[in-house]
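Incident log, structure service

09:12 report received: a user says their structure output differs between two submissions of the same chain.
09:20 pulled the input from the user's history:
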Amino acid sequence: MKLKQGCLPYILKLFNDIEWRNNENIIADTRLERSGLFGEFNIRHTDDEFIGSFKDVPFKICETDLWYESGSSRRKTCMRVFKGVVISFKANKEVKNRTMIATKGDITKAN
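09:34 re-ran on a clean worker, output below:
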């Protein structure tokens, strides 16, 4: 973490308009839920996050880990829903279609 905090801001200055954040959830949980791209989750961990723009198009990038926890005590279960990078950006038109990409054998509620 010390290395990231010390070096990353200087490296990102080379790319002009990009800021590094950490554990801030710059893309709101409600936005992830409304997207319909992820299964139901109630635990979220974020690591590196970036805010910036490219050719005047603002974007947000989050390294995200989503989990669904149910039950309590000895009957508590925790299932990973998603682990990866989430990217949000402005589009120049409204998109009314949805494409779902899933791993073979994915048993999440969304699939």
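09:41 both user submissions now match this output. Likely a transient worker issue. Closing.
09:42 reviewer note: Strands lie at 18-22, 43-54, 57-70, 77-89. The helical segments are 2-13, 29-35.
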